[in-house]
Amino acid sequence: MSERLAYRKIALHVVTLVCVAAMVTPIVWMVSISLHTPEYAFSFSLRRGVTVSSYAATFKQSSLFFLNSLIVASCSTAITMFLGVSAGYGLSRFRFTGKSLTTYLVLLLRMFPPVLLVIGFFQIGNLVGLFDTLVSLFILNSLFTLPFVIWMMVAYFNSIPVEIDEAGLVDGCTRVGVLFRLVLPVSVPSVVAVVVYSFLLSWNEFMFAVTFIQSNGKKLVTVALSEIMGEWWTNYPQLLAMAVMICVPIMILFVAVQRYLIAGLAASAVKG
Amino acid sequence: MGSMIGRRRHPQKRTSKPSASAQGVRFVLPAVAFIFICAIIPIGNVVKLALTSTDFTTGNTVWVGVTHFVQVARAVEFWSAAWHTVRYVVLSVFLHLFLGLLFAIVLNSELLARVAKAGARSLMMLPWTTTLVVSALLWRLLLNPQFSIFRTVVNGLGMTWDRSLLTMVGSAFLGIVIANVWNFTPFYMLMILAQLQSIPRELYEAADIDGAGQLRKLLSITLPQLEELIWFLGIFDVVGTFIQFDLVWLMTNGGPLGSTEVLATLSYRRAFESFDINLGSSIGIMMVLGMAAWTGAMWLVYQRRRRT
After folding, report:
1. ipTM for the complex?
2. Which residues of chain A does B196 touch, with a Cβ-Cβ cutoff of 8 Å?
3. Is B1's Cβ below 8 Å from some Cβ in A?
4. Would you tell me the crossing angle of helices A2-34 and B114-129 to the nearest 10 degrees?
5. CA atoms within 13 A of residue B274's CA, in its CB half-sphere
6. pTM
7. What is the C-alpha separation between B84 and B78, in angstroms, rounded?
């Protein structure tokens, strides 16, 4: 009987390995190509043609784009967190007229095609002078990310006992004070996870960026990559070095906070 | 208070009812105002665009009612894009949930070492964090025999592969689905896994005592516990995939001969490439109406099932 069990254990581990390999291989491949010279780009040799020069070259050429993306993602995240934490607290702790209306509004926003938002915003943005500015992206990314942040913050706040709030109120704290000095410090890991997720969504964003930014100096890194993809380009290591630089830092951040993030996503899914 | 902070509460259980207070409005107001100004107004603008026409020379905007919608409904490209979108959604959502369930069951198994579980979970999450731009790039390379590592496998099986899958009418669609599935399945796997982990062991142990086999346990215990979550995930996935733009645009840009054009890309194309913003708006509104109808139908079905 234990022999059968050992068999099944091994089989299961092999199956798991295969699944993981299927998911991870493209990423590993991407890193491998980026670390080789163009001639050896698609080989897997560990010694010949290994170089980091592609990264240096890419960094020299596109550091401005990375900076732009960083600015957009940071500011969008800041806006979203401010609005989302506040709204999440309100939805978690209070009953008020218009509460379900708010909930439906958030849901509606999530389900709305971004394409339509872009079309609608385009004309208005032009009138208000927001075309070809990073600010337009702050707004659009925030809109896109807000539903997720609100839902996750509601779920997190729901899991924090109201007794903490009440203790603070009894001691003479205002509601806002309770939020900032009692509830938030308790949920720091979760808030950090939501910040990372929100940052990820804005960093990865493409459609808003490609529509609203015209000038080269404000271009974002996702758009830059897509443009290089479109050209006749033979220097694949450099292309993929840029891809790695776009992806890997955020991946590392993500893995660091995954426990809280998954818990929050699961909680908001169950609640919904 | 320290002991309370340390305790992990199940996110669903509330400790007391929310207090009725208008203060809630204050907290919610910034977000609502933001959404109103920055989303509702543009949406109103889109509705206006769909129902009017603007003469470029005179700048006059004229109410044309449903003219644009009729024009859209008459266009073959709209219906083919709609069909492609539906195909894309059905196939992607099915694979997301099916593979997600499969992977989650594997990762939830007790026979798996804890290190293997944690490591596998972290690693399998990575595709989800990958930018769609990068994912499109990677899969364009992977589906092209000139570069792909799969070429050795295919040649080993004795088949010939000389053109990128994305350049052929039938397979381009599948190529995009593969990229989509690679990117998003991890999310669904993680959601299902989280739910699986909350199923009490006692249920399985009781079934073991009654002599139930693996399949029986799966069908009678696991799946019913997952049913509600999978419904919820499915509905959200349908909406999310329906409105998706990036992958299609970047991998095939509508595909060989328009065979991968979906409604989102068509709407965008008509608005910004054909400079017919009214038409693009109309296509978009029809997308929204379609989704609203579908969501409404699902809601009714859900309510019906809850009553039985």
Report:
1. 0.90
2. none
3. yes
4. 30
5. 13
6. 0.89
7. 10
